[in-house]
Amino acid sequence: MIFFNDEGSENGGLIFGGKRDAHGDVVDSGGSLSFDRYNANQVVQLLGVDDRDNRMAGMAVSDSQENGSGHRRLWVGRSADGSALLSLMDGGGNKRIQMKVASDGAAEIDFLDANGKVIKAIRGDSASP
């Protein structure tokens, strides 16, 4: 389902689907709800994917330039390994701060340079009962 503004231009959409292969394995499963900036690409996306290649769910916020593309600036959600994740990116789309809590409770905050190298890390203790 594609969303259109009053002028007839696309400004978002809702997609979903899923299928199994001949062996019964899920090869495609997920959905996405997105909203676009006027006359530009998407700026907000809610998505969930759980198939052979990807397992994630969350929200992405992106910059978007009129008549052009932009870069992802924020991701919050669940990563493929089951961790809760918050990533903040700079204007070029490079991860600069990443906060993560693993499923076992181990917490970490990483500060990264523009090339993705961790320049400072803060590690917490694993959750204990």
Commentary on this structure:
The structure is a single chain. This protein is mainly β and 129 residues long. The chain folds into two domains: 1-51, no CATH class; 71-129, no CATH class. It contains no helices and ten strands. The protein has strands at 2-4, 10-20, 26-36, 42-50, 55-62, 72-78, 84-89, 95-101, 107-112, 118-123. The mean pLDDT is 89.
In short:
With 129 residues, the protein is an all-beta fold. Helices cover 0% and strands 57% of the residues. The protein is built from no helices and ten strands.
Write the layout of secondary structure elements.
Elements: E1 2-4, E2 10-20, E3 26-36, E4 42-50, E5 55-62, E6 72-78, E7 84-89, E8 95-101, E9 107-112, E10 118-123
Antiparallel strand pairs: 1-2, 2-3, 3-4, 4-5, 5-6, 6-7, 7-8, 8-9, 9-10
Report the oligomer. single chain
Biggest beta sheet attributes: 10 strands, antiparallel
Number of domains: 2
Mean pLDDT: 89
- By DSSP (H or I, 4+ residues per run), the number of helices equals 0
Tally of strands = 10
Output the structural class: mainly beta
What is the succession of H and E elements?
EEEEEEEEEE
Instruction: Strand order, main sheet: write it out.
Output: 1-2-3-4-5-6-7-8-9-10
- Based on CA atoms alone, the radius of gyration comes out at 18 Å
Distance separating the two termini: 46 Å
**Broad shape:** flat
Beta-strand proportion: over 45%
Helicity, as a percent range: under 10%
Point out poorly predicted stretches. none
